Amino acid sequence: MLKAVVRAVGIRRAGPFRPRLLHNMVPYDVNRAQELTSRYNEVKFSCDAACKNAGVDHEVLLLAVSKLKPASDIQILYDHGVRHFGENYVQELIEKSKLLPQDIEWHFIGGLQTNKCKDLAKVPNLRYVETIDSLKKAKKLNETRVENAPMILCNIQINTSDESQKSGMSDENEIFELVEFFQSPESNNVQLKGLLTIGSWDVSHSDDPNVDNADFATLVNWKTKIDGKFGTNLKLSMGMSADFKQAIRQGSSEIRIGTDIFGTRPAKADAKII
What we know:
With 274 residues, the protein is α/β, with parallel strands linked by helices. The chain is built from 10 helices and 10 strands. It has one domain: TIM Barrel, CATH 3.20.20.10. Strands 9-8-7-6-5-4-3-10 form an 8-stranded parallel beta sheet. A two-stranded antiparallel ribbon has the order 1-2. The radius of gyration is 19 Å and the shape is globular.
């Protein structure tokens, strides 16, 4: 595999690699490009079909979850027209953001440590942090956002399945306190956009996609409660490969798809950005 980013104009390279001749562009293999765009198109077709079948009248974002995949894979889909990518690890997102085009809208969708908020907030084209699960983290992102960068759009992560291994908030008072912060004048670099949840494995892998997912129903109830109390109109981020049809039918505005688009991920220790 090509190990370095090609930046010089006029470089020619034999074989299947197509050099990218502009800054913040990463070279890639054309055969991989054909495979990846085909997989993305199949997922997008399924998403659009699910929207049509559910009679959805709002936009549903297909978020390409690129964690542990090389920057070249992201460049392929960028050249295919995709602009929204989800990453789970702060350092990986930072490194990819330096290599890839600056009009990518990065979504951070992993577990966020308070001491990593400052590093994440320095990424100019970080657009979404979807896993806010404490007031402290929201305040830290707000305080450390890089100057002149766009406001960070945030989702509150809710633990709808009451599973101890899952992140997310469940205490009503703490959730309301966090919403109040987002609505205060103090919150000038972060903005509340929605709620996120990850359904339990058992519920998400049910045999019948026409049966409501109980975890998604719980998130919808949280939206209703918060919207009613605070006058918001929150979006919902719920649904992955196994349960996105249920999520769309139950009101999701974003589905997060990784493996079905990019294929099996390597172990974290084996993952390479370039």
